């Protein structure tokens, strides 16, 4: 997994609530057996017209936000399906951090597994950053994960919370499967105890 | 200390707990489908890892599979075919059992789990699919996971998790005639909003929930995720045990007795703590439909289309956008909304009881001329049972297209899709923009309500028909 320590980039405002995973990456792009190449299909139905041409005024099609690395969004971002294609598409486009008042659980979790940092902030802080993000190419924001601080374009700062284990994994780009495999003995012990307690589950 | 059902299942699956509360949770059952697993198996291959417990894992293709009766023709769409072939190869290479396209047991992953007895009380169940919540109807802790986690479970049979909060949703009393499990679950989402359950595991209880069949309970838990909760739970009871008895993968003989004895301990203790409680009176629940593009946009069928100004905050703009997308005018009667298509199926409502209900409403009626009406059984076995019971024949005579099992038009990853602007009365679970086809318009409802709409060609109050 790609590490995340400190990120500076343009923040794009997406002031919609309940942005669902079908909006982030529609189903026709879930047929891939790869993790890469989904960036061009990110927000497909909002981004392209019926002929497949870019819709000029859609935010991520405008010159100022094409290079956006941060997304400021409305509440309940990422609701809907468990498709990891959603963070894969965001990542492939170049988005490494999403800031919103709330996220759907599975999406939130999937972000961390892919080197994307989702940050939950109170509505008023999100509103403030949303205003900042309206400034186009000047909407440069810095997100410092180690210090847990966001610095806005005018130098003002906002602190944020993050789960310590997830922070550690992101900063070091850890392979969680490898970490868990180090606990193989504990898993084997659990399995032995489980076979005694609920024998019908062993080998089922 | 008094524990909730969720606490009990959680506690019995913790392999390791770190100081900050991050747990390694043991997973009893892993269901795998073709869309969210290829990258996970690829990850295993690249790291030289194997599947720790192939016997606890089961694979089935469902999302991409065409539902045309002629299955022998194969899958025309190249990408869909590659994805299904990848699942087949991965299952073979890693020793995982697969219910392949030609197998009568093939069907939607959340239908086949319970049907085969793979889903049992007290288990932890995961699948790379958000509607895994369905299995909670058996008192199993079941939730959707992303592909990275699919890989993690394949490799280690565990998941890294932090415990969620407990939420109780109690539905008291008796449901009025014409009101079904789907109306209950949609009405709950109408109350809580799509983010109301975020961070929680919901336990559904109360007389009205206990009175539901296992099928109905699955419909309720299926949509826990639409209310924001990763998992929904219902305590197992005699109905649960009766449903499971004799299923191919249910415990047998002495094991069955032991299992039932254990399952009887799976309930919330008196006085256990819930972080949130919501109570609904069954008597107040009406047959409902959705009008917008979020499952929380739900109203009784007797209502009118709302005005965006009726809402607050970000919802005003969301409602405006939804009405525009749905092509609806505020103030119009929901019952005057004309439809083009009826879709009966999905993991929410593709079980035998749902098909029986449709047949009951259709008795003496026909699908309105010019409507496209399709029934997609949730599994090959549901289809076979409906044929055996004579329901299939009746539905075909009434004008329905009787199809093979799969996800079908619940999300058009297969050839079953809405055309732009087409409007559908659907028994599925999501009315998101483009969900059933590019620019397609979805109204969610119960199978009975979808059947009523099939008869009249517009959104209809089933109580006026049957
Ligand atoms: S039927 Fe629909 S919701 Fe259920 S698993 Fe298939 S696509 Fe997902």
TrEMBL record, chain A:
According to the UniProt entry, what is the EC number of this protein?
A: 4.2.1.33
Under catalytic activity, the entry for this protein gives: (2R,3S)-3-isopropylmalate = (2S)-2-isopropylmalate
Q: Which residues form the Aconitase A/isopropylmalate dehydratase small subunit swivel domain?
A: 1-124
Q: In which pathway does it act?
A: Amino-acid biosynthesis; L-leucine biosynthesis; L-leucine from 3-methyl-2-oxobutanoate: step 2/4
Instruction: Return the InterPro entries for the record.
Output: 3-IsopropMal_deHydase_ssu, Aconitase/3IPM_dehydase_swvl, AconitaseA/IPMdHydase_ssu_swvl, IPMI_Swivel, LeuD
Keywords from UniProt, A to Z, are: Amino-acid biosynthesis, Branched-chain amino acid biosynthesis, Leucine biosynthesis, Lyase
Query: What's its top-level EC category?
Result: lyase
A GO CC term attached to the entry = 3-isopropylmalate dehydratase complex
Q: Does the keyword Cell membrane apply?
A: no
User: Please, which domain of life does this record's source organism belong to?
Assistant: Bacteria
Keyword Amino-acid biosynthesis assigned: yes
Q: Which GO terms describe its biological process?
A: L-leucine biosynthetic process
Note the Pfam families from the entry.
Aconitase_C (PF00694)
- What's a single GO MF annotation on this record? 3-isopropylmalate dehydratase activity
Protein task: Catalyzes the isomerization between 2-isopropylmalate and 3-isopropylmalate, via the formation of 2-isopropylmaleate.
Q: Which family does it belong to?
A: Belongs to the LeuD family. LeuD type 1 subfamily.
Quote the HAMAP family the UniProt record gives.
Answer: LeuD_type1
Q: How does it assemble?
A: Heterodimer of LeuC and LeuD.
Protein name listed in UniProt: 3-isopropylmalate dehydratase small subunit
The organism of origin for this protein: Thermohalobaculum xanthum
TrEMBL record, chain B:
Identify the metabolic or biological route this protein is part of: Amino-acid biosynthesis; L-leucine biosynthesis; L-leucine from 3-methyl-2-oxobutanoate: step 2/4
* Catalytic reactions of this protein: (2R,3S)-3-isopropylmalate = (2S)-2-isopropylmalate
**Sample GO molecular function, one term:** 4 iron, 4 sulfur cluster binding
Under Pfam families, the record lists: Aconitase (PF00330)
The entry marks the following residues as binding [4Fe-4S] cluster, namely: 347, 407, 410
Q: EC number(s)?
A: 4.2.1.33
Q: Which UniProt keywords apply?
A: 4Fe-4S, Amino-acid biosynthesis, Branched-chain amino acid biosynthesis, Iron, Iron-sulfur, Leucine biosynthesis, Lyase, Metal-binding
Instruction: Enumerate the Gene3D superfamilies for this protein.
Output: Aconitase, domain 3
Top class in the EC scheme: lyase
Q: Which cofactor does it need?
A: [4Fe-4S] cluster
The Gene Ontology biological process terms listed for this entry are: L-leucine biosynthetic process
Q: Which family does it belong to?
A: Belongs to the aconitase/IPM isomerase family. LeuC type 1 subfamily.
The record describes the protein's role as: Catalyzes the isomerization between 2-isopropylmalate and 3-isopropylmalate, via the formation of 2-isopropylmaleate.
Subunit annotation: Heterodimer of LeuC and LeuD.
Protein known as: 3-isopropylmalate dehydratase large subunit
């Amino acid at each position: 997994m790609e590490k995340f320590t400190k990120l500076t980039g343009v923040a794009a405002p997406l002031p919609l609530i309940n942005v669902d995973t079908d909006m982030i990456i529609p189903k026709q792009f879930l047929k891939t057996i790869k993790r890469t190449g989904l960036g061009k299909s990110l927000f497909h139905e909002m981004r392209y017209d019926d002929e497949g041409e870019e819709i000029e005024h859609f935010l991520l099609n405008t010159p100022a936000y094409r290079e956006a690395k941060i997304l400021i969004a409305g509440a309940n971002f990422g609701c809907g399906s468990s498709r990891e294609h959603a963070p894969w598409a965001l990542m492939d486009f170049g988005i490494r951090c999403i800031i919103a008042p709330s996220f759907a659980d599975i999406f939130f979790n999937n972000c961390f597994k892919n080197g994307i940092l989702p940050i939950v902030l109170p509505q008023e802080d999100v509103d403030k950053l949303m205003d900042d993000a309206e400034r186009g190419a000047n909407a440069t924001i810095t997100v410092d994960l180690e210090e847990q601080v966001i610095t806005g374009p005018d130098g003002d700062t906002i602190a944020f919370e993050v789960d310590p284990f997830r922070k550690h994994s992101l900063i070091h780009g850890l392979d969680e499967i490898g970490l868990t495999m180090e606990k193989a003995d504990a898993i084997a012990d659990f399995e032995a105890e489980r076979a005694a307690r609920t024998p019908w589950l062993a080998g089922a | 200390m008094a524990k909730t059902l969720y606490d009990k299942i959680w506690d019995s699956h913790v392999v390791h707990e770190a100081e900050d509360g991050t747990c390694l949770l043991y997973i009893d059952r892993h269901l795998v489908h073709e869309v969210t697993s290829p990258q996970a198996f690829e990850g295993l291959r690249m790291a030289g890892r194997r599947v720790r417990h192939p016997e606890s894992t089961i694979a089935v293709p469902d999302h991409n599979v065409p539902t045309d009766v002629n299955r022998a023709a194969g899958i025309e769409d190249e990408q869909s075919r590659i994805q299904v072939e990848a699942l087949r190869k991965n299952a073979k290479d890693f020793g995982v059992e697969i219910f392949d396209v030609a197998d009568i047991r093939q069907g939607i992953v959340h239908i086949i789990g319970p049907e085969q007895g793979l889903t049992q009380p007290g288990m932890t169940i995961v699948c790379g699919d958000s509607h895994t919540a369905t299995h909670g109807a058996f008192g199993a802790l079941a939730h959707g996971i992303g592909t990275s986690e699919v890989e993690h479970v394949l490799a280690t049979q565990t998941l890294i998790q932090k415990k969620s909060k407990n939420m109780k949703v109690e539905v008291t009393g008796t449901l009025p005639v014409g009101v079904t499990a789907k109306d209950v679950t949609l009405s709950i989402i109408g109350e809580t909003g799509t983010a109301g359950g975020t961070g929680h595991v919901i336990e559904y209880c109360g007389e009205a929930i206990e009175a539901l069949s296992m099928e109905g309970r699955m419909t309720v838990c299926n949509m826990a995720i639409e209310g924001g909760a990763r998992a929904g739970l219902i305590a197992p009871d005699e109905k649960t045990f009766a449903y499971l008895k004799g299923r191919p993968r249910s415990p047998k003989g002495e094991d069955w007795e032991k299992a039932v004895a254990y399952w009887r301990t799976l309930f919330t203790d008196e006085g256990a703590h819930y972080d949130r409680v919501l109570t609904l009176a069954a008597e107040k629940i009406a047959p409902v439909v959705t009008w917008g593009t979020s499952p929380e946009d739900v109203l009784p069928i007797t209502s009118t289309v709302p005005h965006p100004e009726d809402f607050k905050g970000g919802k005003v703009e969301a409602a405006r956008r939804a009405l525009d997308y749905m092509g609806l005018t505020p103030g119009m009667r929901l019952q005057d909304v004309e439809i083009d298509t009826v879709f009966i199926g999905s993991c929410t409502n593709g079980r035998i009881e749902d098909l029986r209900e449709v047949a009951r409403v259709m008795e003496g009626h026909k699908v309105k001329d010019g409507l496209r009406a399709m029934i997609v059984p949730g599994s090959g076995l549901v289809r076979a049972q409906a044929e055996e019971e004579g329901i299939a024949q009746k539905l075909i005579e009434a004008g329905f297209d009787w199809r093979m099992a799969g996800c079908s038009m619940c999300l058009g990853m297969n050839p079953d899709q809405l055309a732009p602007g087409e409007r559908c009365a659907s028994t599925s679970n999501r009315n998101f923009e483009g969900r059933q086809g590019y620019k397609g318009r979805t109204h969610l409802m119960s199978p009975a309500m979808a059947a009523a709409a099939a008869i009249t060609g517009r959104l209809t109050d089933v109580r006026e028909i049957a």
